[in-house]
Structures are given as C-alpha cells and as structure tokens.
Amino acid sequence: MPYRVTFVCTGNICRSPMAEWILRHHVAEEGLDVEVDSSGTGSWHVGDDADSRTVEALRRAGYRSAHVARQFEADWFDRYDLILALDRGHLRALRSMAPDEEARGRVRLLREFDPAAGADLDVPDPYYGDHADFDEVLAMVEAAMPGLLAEIRTGLKAA
C-alpha cells in the first residue's frame, strides 16, 4: 500500500500545488511508493488551475505541473499518512477538523522538515506578490524535501 501525503494551503492554487509537484518529482526519482496530492482550506478556487506564477516557478526549476484546485474535506483524514499544512493558520484549521487525536497527529507543518527553518515554520502566501515571492516559496519547499523524504522513507519501512 502506498504512503499517502497531501499538502494544504488556503486556496490550493499557489503553495500546496507547488509542494505537491516538487514532492512528486522527488518520490518518482527515488522510485518510492507514494501518492501525493493537495487541497485548500477554502472553496473559492475549487476547479481552478494552479496560479500561472506557480506553474512558471515550477517550470523554471525543472518541475512539471498539472492541477485542478479542490477543498480539503473532513472525511479525508483517514486517506492520508501525512497531512502537511503550509502555515500555522492551515494547521489550526486542519486540526480543528480532525475527528480524533490520531488524525490530529498526522497534521504537521511542511517547514518542520527543514532544520534551517528555525522557529519560522510558515510558508508565506505569495498570491499578492510577484515572481520573486513564488521563487522564495519554491526554495522553502525544496529546503524541506530532504527531511520530508526521510520521514516518508521511515513511514514506508514501518508499513
């Protein structure tokens, strides 16, 4: 059975699809049995493509992307081994939706996996910014990948 990871941000058009496609790239490179997707805490972008600046940042960095935004639903908790919030607001929203303590324990912040992040574990929302803001988010997501991949490998061994 594959290890299942989802990323959650606000509208599911900037940060979470970026993280999704970066992780998809890395697990494919390593041949890991991992399913990756993403969603948002809000519904206003459901059905939309990823923000064009997200797609451009991913392409500039050599990643693919294809995306249709969706909203995270409370009955999805048992689908995932790891639910990664992109900031503390998403973390609070997800944990408040969780049906029990076990489900709450599967919700973590992405930047927890970046040892250089220190206490600043939020990935800022680039939506009102420019291309540099999207590139900054991409760099933050990439910095968390080695630690996240180590966590996934551990999870795969335990399964």
Q: What would you note in describing this structure?
A:
The protein is α/β, with parallel strands linked by helices and 159 residues long. It is globular. The chain has a four-stranded parallel beta sheet. It has helices spanning 15-30, 52-60, 88-97, 101-105, 131-158, and strands at residues 3-9, 34-40, 82-85, 107-109. The relative contact order is 0.21. The model has no long low-confidence stretch (mean pLDDT 97). The protein has one domain: Response regulator (Rossmann fold, 3-Layer(aba) Sandwich). The protein has five helices and four strands.
Order of helices and strands: EHEHEHHEH
Distance between the termini: 8 Å
Q: Strand percentage, roughly?
A: 5-15%
Form type: globular
Average residue pLDDT: 97
Number of helical stretches of at least 4 residues: 5
Q: What structural class is derived from the secondary structure elements?
A: alpha/beta
- CATH-defined superfamily: Response regulator
Total beta strands: 4
Rounded radius of gyration (Å): 14 Å
CATH topology: Rossmann fold
Helix content estimate: 40-55%
Task: Specify the biggest β-sheet.
Answer: 4 strands, parallel
Class in CATH?
Alpha Beta
Low-pLDDT runs of 5+ residues are none
Using the 3D structure, state the CATH architecture: 3-Layer(aba) Sandwich
Strand order of the largest sheet: 2-1-3-4
Count of separate structural domains: 1
Provide tags for this entry.
single chain, about 160 residues, alpha/beta, Rossmann fold, four-stranded parallel β-sheet, 5 helices, 4 strands, about 45% helix, about 15% strand, EC 3.1.3.48
